[in-house]
């Protein structure tokens, strides 16, 4: 087993809520704050904190717009974020494969 | 997407170090403290804390033995732990499949 199989897991994505955000943004392209909040059943403050971590990492982009007069916060994954998410998923797949080896 | 796809991730296993411990115990059957420490590159205190979380969850069993006069701490996954780990891996696989759907 490689020494860094688990160490190489990207903590910025690994937290449950951030894994949820990155998964949704990867599948849906972009999401507004309200949709993320509802889909992931997070409080506003909690979601805001996780979004900030991902934004600071350069993994997502946050844009403030309006729908009519209602403000809307749109999130989308950046190229860096999409690549980091792909790497993260590959890392999980490596771990899953490792755990499915027969006992030696 | 199911509402609870991410919520259903078992936090007791999800933390990087504990995922490492459970993976190693699943693959190798049982491990002593020193091997876990070395393989996962954790400090003694850190490894001890994670082992306690897993032991309190009923996921692993910790046995103190001796090799000659040297004390040895052996860890092995319980049936509950093996099942919880299997469920955890299935949950990851569900998430991975979800992220690989084409955009709708």
From TrEMBL, chains A, B:
Q: Please state every residue range assigned to the domain named Winged helix DNA-binding.
A: 18-96
Q: Give TM regions.
A: none
Q: Cross-referenced Pfam families, in alphabetical order?
A: HTH_34
Descriptive protein name: Transcriptional regulator
Provenance organism: Cohnella nanjingensis
Which InterPro entries did the record assign? WH-like_DNA-bd_sf (IPR036388), WH_DNA-bd_dom (IPR027395), WH_DNA-bd_sf (IPR036390)
